[in-house]
């Protein structure tokens, strides 16, 4: 990594752990960018294309896979999710730190594609709190809540493969801890 290049941060964790809220707080810093993932799932509520996700058809997504247009991609709960390559590489070359908010299965792919990335797993305070957060969204069917809780129980042990694990008991504390990780990594790399 060149001194002028930004850091690549991979942030994962189970659905409902609060990744999106923490990332929103982090990206209030003008030097931190969020890579907007592409997905084939339908928008939820007021989600807008190009804001929360780039919403794509399955066919369009698969075409971009064939063109090596993703750093990583995965299928999760019957939908594709992926990280478009071009904007990430552009921002990093401009010295911006880039966050990839991705599913656990994508983290290893990113580590292979971009050595030197920093992986951070956001842990819920408890499984009970996680289920409460999923139910509190009001956007999930009972079947999806069960699927997501089952998946969370599979994902949490995989946190051992991450560089850092941060518990999201409060958004502010979690975001501040990640900011400290960024500072420490920059000092170590300098």
Global geometry: globular
Helix content: 40-55%
Strand order of the largest sheet: 2-7-1-8-9
The number of helical elements comes to: 7
H/E element order: EHEEEHEEHEHEHHEH
What structural class should be given to the helix and strand makeup?
Answer: alpha/beta
Outline the biggest β-sheet.
5 strands, parallel
Care to count the β-strands?
9
Strand-residue proportion: 15-25%
Report the average pLDDT across residues: 91
| Poorly predicted spans | none
**Terminus-to-terminus distance:** 10 Å
Integer-rounded radius of gyration: 16 Å
Describe the structure.
- The chain has 190 residues and is an alpha/beta fold.
- The protein has helices spanning 19-26, 58-66, 85-93, 104-113, 127-137, 142-155, 171-189, and strands at residues 8-12, 32-35, 38-39, 54-55, 70-76, 79-84, 97-101, 118-123, 164-167.
- A hairpin with a 2-residue loop joins strand 5 (70-76) and strand 6 (79-84).
- The longest helix is centred in the C-terminal third of the chain and has 19 residues, at 171-189.
- It is globular and about 50 Å long.
- The protein starts with 7 loop residues before the first strand and ends with a helix.
Blueprint (SSEs and pairs):
Layout: E1 8-12, H1 19-26, E2 32-35, E3 38-39, E4 54-55, H2 58-66, E5 70-76, E6 79-84, H3 85-93, E7 97-101, H4 104-113, E8 118-123, H5 127-137, H6 142-155, E9 164-167, H7 171-189
Parallel strand pairs: 1-7, 1-8, 2-7, 3-4, 8-9
Antiparallel strand pairs: 3-6, 5-6
């Amino acid at each position: 990594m060149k001194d002028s290049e930004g850091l690549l941060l991979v942030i994962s964790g189970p659905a409902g752990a609060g990744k999106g809220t923490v990332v929103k707080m982090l990206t209030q810093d003008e030097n931190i960018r969020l890579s907007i993932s592409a997905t084939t799932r339908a928008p939820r509520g007021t989600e807008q294309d190009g804001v929360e996700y780039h919403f794509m058809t399955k066919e369009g997504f698969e075409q971009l896979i064939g063109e090596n247009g993703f750093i990583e991609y995965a299928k999760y709960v019957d939908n594709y999710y992926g990280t478009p390559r071009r904007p990430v590489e552009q921002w990093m070359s401009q010295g911006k730190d880039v966050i990839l908010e991705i599913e656990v299965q994508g983290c290893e792919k990113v580590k292979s594609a971009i050595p030197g990335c920093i992986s951070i797993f956001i842990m819920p305070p408890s499984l009970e709190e996680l289920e409460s957060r999923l139910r509190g969204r009001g956007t999930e069917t009972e079947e999806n809540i069960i699927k997501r809780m089952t998946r969370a129980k599979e994902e949490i042990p995989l946190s051992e493969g991450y560089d850092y694990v941060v518990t999201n008991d409060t958004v502010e504390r979690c975001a501040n801890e990640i900011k400290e990780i960024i500072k420490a990594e920059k000092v170590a790399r300098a």
